[in-house]
Structures are given as C-alpha cells and as structure tokens.
Amino acid sequence: MPAREHIAREIRDRGGWISFARYMELALHAPGTGYYAGGARQFGAEGDFVTAPELGTLFGRTLARQLAQFPDLPILELGAGSGALAETLERDYSILETSAALRARQSQRLGRRVKHLDRLPERWRGIILANEVADAIPVHLVAWRAEGVMERGVTVQDGKFAWQEKPASEDLREEASRIQVPSPYESEIGLAARAWMRTLCERLEHGVIFVIDYGFPRGEYYHPQRSTGTLMCHHRHRAHADPFARPGDEDITAHVDFSALAAAARDAGADVLGFATQAQFLVNCGITEVLAEANVENALVYAPIAAQAQKLLSPAEMGELFKVLAVGKGITAPLLGFARGDRSHAL
Ligand SMILES: C[S@@+](CC[C@H](N)C(=O)[O-])C[C@H]1O[C@@H](n2cnc3c(N)ncnc32)[C@H](O)[C@@H]1O
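^ thats the input. predicted complex w/ S-adenosylmethionine below
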C-alpha cells in the first residue's frame, strides 16, 4: 500500500485527525512505505540530497582527527545512510539503523567490519555519531494564536491531506510557554528529538555524542522573522515546503533546535563539551592539513577535494548552517574541534 493510503487509513481509524509528528513518522519511517524504508536511492548526486560523508572522504578524514583524541573508544553511528562515513572511519564500529533497507545496503558495503545493533545498548562507553539524523526525527507543529497555543495536525478533506488545528496538549503547551515568540507564529517543537537525546545521554556511561546537523540555537530558531518555521522537503535536490506533496517519496525535515538538545543532555547528567559551526569545527580539526595531503600538482585529484572543502566550509553551503554539538560524560580534556570559536554560550 502506498504511503499516502497508509496515512489516510490511519487518519480515518483515529477519528479524522493525526498530529503532524505522526504524519512525519509514517511518511519517513513506516516499514515498507516510509521514505527511509526505500533504501539508498535518496543519497548522492542521483538522489534527493547529498550529505557531508556522501561528498567524499574529506569530512570523515577530518572528523577522524577529532576522534583520534579517544583512540580506545568504540564508535556507534546512528542512522548511517549509505555507510559512507563508516567506510572512511577505520575503527571499532557499530551502527544502529532504523531502516531495514539501509541496513542491508550498509552490510553489503561494509561487510563484517561493522556490527549492526538491533537497539540502543543499555549502557555505552564510547563515541556516538549522528550526522543528519536529528533533522529526520518527527516534529510537532505548533501555532501561537490569539486564542492560545494550537497544534497543527493532518486531516483528509475531499480526498486530500489538509491542515487542521486543535488546542495543544499539555506537554506541548508547556514547551511552547518557554519559547518567546510574537503571535501569530508557527514553528516546530521537537519533543521526540529531546527524548532521543535524553535517552542517549542516560545510556552513555562514558564518552562523547556528536550531533551534526543543520539548525540553530534557540534565539535564532524562534526568531520573530522565522514565523513559519523550518519544515522542508527534499526531492531530487529541490527544496520545497509542502509535506503533503509526495509522502513516502521525499524527505521531510526540520532544522534542529540545538538549545533543546543541549538542555535534554544536561537533564540526563551529561556535559556540553562544545558547539560550533561545521566550518569552525572542521578548521579546528585540521581540515587544511588533510587537504594538504592531496597532490596539488594533479588537478584531476585536487579539484574534487577542493570542491568538497568548499561545500563543507562555505557559509553559502554547509559551513554556517550546519552545526556540531558535542555532549559527554567523564570527559575532561578539551575537544580539538572546539579549540576556537566555541559557541556553547549561545545555547
Ligand atoms: C539523512 S540520512 C543521513 C545518513 C548519514 N548519516 C549521512 O550523513 O549520509 C538519515 C539516516 O538516519 C536514519 N534514521 C532516522 N531516524 C533514526 C533514528 N531515530 N535512529 C537511527 N537512525 C535513524 C535513516 O534511516 C537514515 O539512515
């Protein structure tokens, strides 16, 4: 059954309305019909988007310099996509992947070097990596209106998905009350992402969690001018804002509220170890030295690597919008990636 029918049936079964978070969960993650259930066709030049590890090995080799601070800690990557980053990082490596199709793709690419876990371990001593995973975690949509805080959900009207608002639940109202915005105003609240971060930190006994994604600290996220939120869909390298256009066939994402993730981590007893733009983090890790290892004399070799650097670092590309948040337990040494330009104070 296509995703559209699957979702419409659930809306009917639940009395004509589901939260947007449930819609997003079904559109992205429902086994069989969700977008990520569809395998690896989403990734790379032929797909819908290109992530940093998909550009080439420069990102992974630079990140490896940060991870070299913890040579004895095993790595757990969450949501490994096509397996590109795991291929670059030659370490004791496990993957937790929610999509069965992507898990199969990763096994095919990486063989036995990488272990797949079926669930998050009860206790973890090591590194956890999540690159472009937090933006795929379903968000609740909230509208601040004159009559109060409303939740935006999905109904079916004349055979099509349509928006419908209801008074927000207590959990959402409580979160919304901590956010200062003008009214009317619409945005997202990532309740599931907060819970995800809390669980990761509760299970972490010792080590560091790196969350790398596009997003902002709270003050910028809920800026008065960003009054329609950050929800975005990606299809064949085109971005648009209509999540009802191709459910199951395109990516739906929201920017990450890094202040919320940092607060959830602290609640679970972890320390914030650093927060910086991706460009600053990679420069601190020594991306220029990794670049210098390439043969500058040979344009055929050098040009593609220089193009990767431009994409990863340029403020017009991934350099500024993408951020790196590191939280951890039992780590006292300062992290290389935040040696300069740490913006933890902005969280
Ligand atoms: C946009 S892709 C990024 C893939 C890869 N990290 C990269 O940078 O190329 C999102 C990945 O996260 C997985 N995923 C989404 N939610 C997840 C979750 N809660 N736990 C683990 N994996 C998840 C998806 O199946 C997919 O592999």
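The chain has a mean pLDDT of 95.
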